[in-house]
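Subject: mismatched residue count in predicted assembly?

I count 396 residues in my input, but I want to confirm that the predicted structure covers every chain. Input:
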Amino acid sequence: MDGHRDIEALIGLMARLPGLGPRSARRAVLHLMKKRDSQLLPLAQLMSDVGRSVRTCLNCGNLSTGDICNICNSEKRANGQVCVVEDVADLWAMERAQVFSGRYHVLGGTLSPLDDIGPDDLHIPKLRDRIAAEGLREVILALNATVDGQTTAHYVARELAPTGVTVSSLAQGVPVGGELDYLDDGTLRAALSSRKPF
Amino acid sequence: MDGHRDIEALIGLMARLPGLGPRSARRAVLHLMKKRDSQLLPLAQLMSDVGRSVRTCLNCGNLSTGDICNICNSEKRANGQVCVVEDVADLWAMERAQVFSGRYHVLGGTLSPLDDIGPDDLHIPKLRDRIAAEGLREVILALNATVDGQTTAHYVARELAPTGVTVSSLAQGVPVGGELDYLDDGTLRAALSSRKPF
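Triage response: the counts match. Full output below for your records.
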């Protein structure tokens, strides 16, 4: 228990990561101490590099090494569509799926009166500015299918109505590979009411 | 997905920590990106500090900022007893419990033929040296109550026999607060055969 204060502080910081508690943080730190040269020091270096170089894209809210991210900088992605997501994690999920070729707009959260998150805390004004600035035709709302997510979607749609842009949202329905027996009532109701000609 | 390569590398390194997988590593990294100044950079700094300053005590195998750890340096802990543990984590567990006032000896693992860990990979010769050097009276084996742990305990006890030092081991029995109904057969058998006058 020597060098003790630093190690305890390190465990304390690690324990604040989502998915780690005090116990698993201790295990992780011990693991790192054993792999000092192959893991601990490279991890420290990379965290420091990322922390210093990566910031938020001023246009869309994505993570970026410059003021404007690669996606916003790419002319190929300027197809008139913008996909509105809650969080950078959702943007990553869309990119991993390789299903969308337009640009993104990261709101940075959802409206949540309980957590004191109002419209001013989300990047909605910037989204409205982008519609004219980038000549957007369609705004696709890809927010989580939760109460907060859908409330936010309605709010954004209402805010954008005066601009005349087409606002759409991800379809709700039976997930691919999903079994009806295991689906919740809300999903079944949504899937039924959005049924399509076969 | 800009600054992408560094972030992906960071996620990859985080995913190698015990208790984190690729998905939770991604969550943790995003969390850190959002708390850049309060968590990411301090964590990077602390990891780097700890990685550079903390090493293994040459005497007992504990983590230490110098060649010899605080416990080995403290005259108060020189009570003639040494507690043999498998890992630094076990040493920490003993210290947290504040039940032992002697010194420690960290073996650095257990004998495990399957993992190709033999006697030469553990710090057993050093332990034998310490018996004479520190005038030890008792070696307390605090190894895990697993097959590997107990095999190692027997091996260590046999190695130390020629020195004449007293070798003891932690008692096995019903854990405090334990209910008989939930205990495994092995624990019940050990508790019964080690029964004490009431």
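Strands of chain A lie at 55-56, 63-64, 81-85, 103-106, 138-141, 166-169. Marking this ticket as 'not a bug'.
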